[in-house]
Amino acid sequence: MGTLGRVAVLGGGIGGLAAAHYLRKRAPGAKVLLLEGSERLGGWLWSNRRPDGAVFELGPRGVRFSSKSYIFMSFLLFLGLCEPEIN
């Protein structure tokens, strides 16, 4: 990747978070500004943690898994948004 100066990423959903993360990783000298219009990050990703510790995932609407899903899953693992195994 060439030299980047300043980059603005619009939206703090999973796509915007991934874009900002990979820009920082691939162009460490770039100044990355993430802009989100709502009060929280995550877009359609929304977790509801109950007092008893149970977590309900209320989004996204759907994830289609394919041969390239490892990229998506590795990013979610990196962010701590999922567990490595489901029993």
Automatic annotation (TrEMBL):
Gene3D superfamilies per the UniProt record, alphabetical: FAD/NAD(P)-binding domain
Annotated signal peptide: none
Any one Gene Ontology BP term: heme biosynthetic process
Cellular component, GO annotation: mitochondrial inner membrane
The protein's name: Protoporphyrinogen oxidase
Matches recorded under Pfam families: NAD_binding_8
One of the record's GO molecular function terms: oxygen-dependent protoporphyrinogen oxidase activity
InterPro entries membership: FAD/NAD-bd_sf, Zeta_carotene_desat/Oxidored
Organism of provenance: Neogobius melanostomus
Ranges in coiled-coil conformation: none
